[in-house]
User: What shape does this take?
Amino acid sequence: MTMTTDASVNGWQPQLIFILHPQRKLREVLYARAVPTVKDRIVQTAVKFVLEPIFEATFRSMSYGFRPGRGCRDALREVDQLIKEGYTFVVDADLESYFDTIPHERLMQRVEERISDGRVLGLLRSWLGQEIMRGMERWEATEGTPQGAVISPLLSNIYLHPLDELMAACGYRMVRYADDFVVLCKSYEEAEAALVRIRAWVKDNGLRLHPDKTHIGDCRKRGEGFEFLGYRFEAGGRFVRKKSLDRLKDSIRAKTRRTCGQSLARIIESLNRTLRGWFNYFKQAHPNTFPAVDQFVRRRLRAILRKQAKRPGFGKTHADHRQWPSTTVSETRIFSGLMVRSAALRSASRTMQAGASRRPSGALAGARRPREERGLLRTRSESGENIFLTQ
Assistant: This one.
């Protein structure tokens, strides 16, 4: 199915592919999602290169999403620093279906405040106002930006820029990544006042706050924390959000099926790509997270080894632990979260010691390496495959 429009610029007519995609809600609901074709992506990228510097000059520093030179880690670092400074009462706000509910006319008005070129404005309107065709039904969208489009993140930042201006004018410390944002305050009353202003702005601009995901809490207390960019800040700690952990386990399960028919080396190579990125992003989380993930990976690998040895089971027995102790790897070592955490702690320790100048620079050179970085022992599985095990 495709989406077409009668509008064209210099003979070029944008087209969008129309697909059905399951939205993750309490119920499994199918909704329409527009995916730009290759030609659309090329044109949208060119337009973005022109528009982005113009609007970047006005965007606030509190905005981190889809901006050059900024990212998730910068936003998380800012949140962590504000909490340390005493901004512990947090307004955790969630815009319900933000990308699907941006009013087109109000968005174009904000674009026209800085852009007057009719050709560029015509392109933006053609992308936003695509006539959707499904079977014999046709309708024209009046709100929302095409998800997956190159230009959509920039347009979303343009529409929320007045909210950034409002929070800055009122003196609130807000950190925003696209439509996900938190406002950090030093008192509950200040947080309540900030939420009142946010509700008023959201209502006036044709958006909606999610009633179940918007709340105020003291992140120092257990049960009153907030989730932001995959992390959960609660009880003075920084944890991995349960949904992020569940997605990782689902990915590991898909790669380590006992009947996948691949060698252990190939499976570990595929796993390492996933684990390396996940651990590097969540390396600042609570250290108790990493041993549990490592144990889960080892158990999945032991189950594969049992299958290759033509033995039933899931790799949970004491005999399996004795036969394949600790981290089981092949030609390439399995990526371990403990290694990432140890490296992060050593780096922080070296930084603190260098700042205090209490120890010579080479004092750590002879320090004993963590257990997970020591040598490997070679053994063989019952199937005859070389396996390397940590000491």
Remarks:
- Confidence is low (pLDDT under 50) at residues 1-9, 19-33, 327-332, 358-391.
- The radius of gyration is 26 Å.
- The longest helix spans residues 289-308.
- The chain is about 45% helix and 20% strand.
